Structures are given as structure tokens and as C-alpha cells.
# Entry
Amino acid sequence: MMQHLSDEHTALYSRILEGSAQILPNGLEQHDGQEEFDKSAWDKCGALGLCGLTVPTMLGGSGLDPLSAVIAMEAFGRGCADNGLGVSLGAHLWGCLTLLLAGDRARNVDIIRDLATGRKIGALAVSEPEAGSDLAAILTTAVAVDGGYRLEGRKCYVTNAPVADVLVVLAETRPGNLAFGLSAFCLERGTPGLTTPAPVSKMGLRTASMGDVELDGCLVPKSARIGAEGAGLSLFLKVMEMERAFILAPAIGSMERVFEATRHYAQNRKQFDQPIAEFESVYGRLAEMYRRTSLARLVLRDAAARKGSGGSITLEASMAKLTISDAWVANCQDALAIFAAKGYLSATGIERELRDALGGQIYSGTSDIQRRTIAKMLRVIS
Ligand SMILES: Cc1cc2nc3c(=O)[nH]c(=O)nc-3n(C[C@H](O)[C@H](O)[C@H](O)COP(=O)(O)OP(=O)(O)OC[C@H]3O[C@@H](n4cnc5c(N)ncnc54)[C@H](O)[C@@H]3O)c2cc1C
# Structure
């Protein structure tokens, strides 16, 4: 369903769909099994312009508005079945790069250019062992020293950390003050005192490399700080608005792929002398899968169009994140019910899609946190 797309959007969708289908023509099952991040697949994303979709062209990016960017990422998700790669791209683009752009872009031109072209990989390190949903619990500190800051602490669950060249880190510069006590820092791999241990093993999105970031007496110059001291929370909230709204755009393409495969299976698999698609419980699930995908796409594109016309989209971002992630999980469960035993086997790819989809209800704020944000924006709670 390609409703209300301009000729330019349709051409963009077709170009990215075609290019994405070449990114990982085979080997996904093996990469997933061995939890491998595929750098050559990443490089192909860079060549397609996916690593810097919304970055201005003068900074090496594709210069797209938010609606065009999500249309490109929907096409990516449809053409490339590697959902882990989609999340790697999302953390790089909507997390790391968006924060750098919101901060001192003039100071970080070279880094932004390398990230936007995909020559470098970015990560956004916020979560900590004691600080998940609750940013006020962040314990990583950045203490002002002669000429710069000394960072101490540990970040966890950071997408791309084991492979990232650039890590944007949130740390306390004034402990105990959430509103003005956090600052953002741009660290490059190789900075003494910065280490990224081996990737952690996880349930889904296994081709996206995830791990800790350890900061042990990590000395950085003042120029590594992004924005003013104490501006970390406001920068992070700007980033979260974009990340929450758009990080699940590839899931729309994934849902379309899974729907097509499930429809084909249901129309060809026969039981009791008829295609199983004839059973009400099966065609009902297919109808629901299509409905959820279409609604999720509308909510996503609405958020993107609103962002493009300026202004805040805090409410729309949480609505998009919640709607898409719930639809993705429900659709995978319906696909599994229809494929039954065949879907339970790794070779079909359905069980991998379900494992991948479940992560979408956690990263960039859990579903509970999205509901809480929606209730706050509607002034149901203060
Ligand atoms: C695949 C994946 C990728 C990730 N990538 C990154 C990354 O790149 N960078 C990064 O910094 N982090 C990343 N994370 C971490 C992610 O941001 C956190 O997992 C998330 O913010 C939730 O934190 P938590 O897991 O510690 O859960 P907790 O905050 O401990 O929450 C536990 C439970 O309590 C509920 N809960 C907590 N507070 C409230 C509340 N106020 N109201 C209602 N319910 C509440 C939650 O919904 C959840 O059910 C990633 C996580 C995953 C799974």
C-alpha cells in the first residue's frame, strides 16, 4: 500500500528497494546463528546513502526530509531481511548522528561526514546497569579537569558498541541534577581509557553488535563535549523524539515481507482438501496482519510528515513506536500460527523475525514508557 506518495517518493522507494535486495542476498541464517555483524553489508548501506539519510548533502549525507527518510527505510526493510542491520543503522543515524547534528555540527564536520557516508560507524551510549528507563539514575561522571574532562563509568546494551568508531556518551557533569546535570560527549575509538568489551549474546537482532562501553579515567579535551555543559538532557530528548518515531521504519518493510510469505503459504498449503487460507481463522489472521501493517505505516508517515513541517512530535513519536512495535510482534505471532511447525524451524525465517520483533518493544524506551509519555502528553498524568 503506497498511499499518497509523490513521484519522487515512489522513485526513492524503488531505488532503495532494488539496492537493499542486493545487500545480503544470502547468508542471513548463518550470520544470525553466529551473531555476526556484516561489515560488507554495512558498506553497501553506505553506498546506497542509508547511513546519512537526513544529514545535509554538504556534510556528506543524502539530505532527505524525515518523510523521505522513513520511506527509504521502509524500502530497506522490505528489500533486506536483516533486521539487525536495520537496528544498527537506526542507532547510528537516529541516535549518534542526530545528537551530533543537534549539538555542535560545525565542530564535528569531519566526524559527521565520515558517519554520514558510512565510513565510520556510530553508537549512542546512554543505558547503564542501574539506569534503563530512569535517566536520573545515570552514574557515569565527567569531571572537569585541566583542559577537558575525565570520564568514569560503564554503559551497557549499546547497539554497535563493539564495532563503533564514534561513541556519543551521556554523563553527569553536575551529579543529582537531571535537568541541567547531564552532558553529551563525542568519543572516538582509540581514546585512552575507553574500551568496548566483546559483544553480548542476545535473543534477536543478532546481526547487530551490542555491548558495554567502559570508561576508566578516560581523558577527553573540552572540544569533545557536544553542546553546552548541562545541555545533555535537552539534546537527548531531541534525539529520542526522532529515534522513537523513526527507528522502526524498516519494520514496516519486514511486516510486508512476512505478510507476502504467509499469504503465499496459506494459499498453497492444503489440509482437509483445501488451502488453509480458506479457514476463517487463517484468513482472519492475514486480514489482521494487513490492517496492522497499514495502520503502522500511516502512524509512522504522519509522525515523519509532522516532523518535516517543524515542531515537536513527542506524542506522535511514542504513538509510532508503540503502534509499530506491537504490530510487528503480533504479525510475527500470526505468521507463526499460520506456518505452524514449519514456522518454528529456523530455515523459514519466521522464528527469527519474531525474535527480532520482540526487541522493538524494549529499545528507545519500553512500551510502558511510550504509554506513560502518551498519557503525559495528553495531561492524563503530570
Ligand atoms: C535491542 C536493544 C538495543 C538497545 N540499544 C541501546 C543503545 O544503542 N544505547 C543505549 O543506551 N541503550 C540501548 N538499549 C537499552 C534500552 O534503551 C533499555 O533496555 C530500555 O531503556 C529499558 O531499560 P531496562 O532494560 O534497564 O529496563 P528497566 O528500565 O529496568 O524496566 C524494567 C521494566 O519496568 C518497566 N518500567 C520502568 N520504569 C517504568 C515507569 N516509569 N512506568 C512504567 N513502567 C516502567 C519497564 O517498562 C520494564 O517493563 C537497547 C536495548 C535493546 C533490547
Summary: The two ends are 38 Å apart (CA to CA). The chain has three domains: 7-116, 122-230, 236-377. The pocket of flavin-adenine dinucleotide is lined by residues 91, 95, 124-127, 132-133, 157-159, 205, 210, 359, 362-363, 365-366, 368-369, 372 (CB under 6 Å). The mean pLDDT is 96.
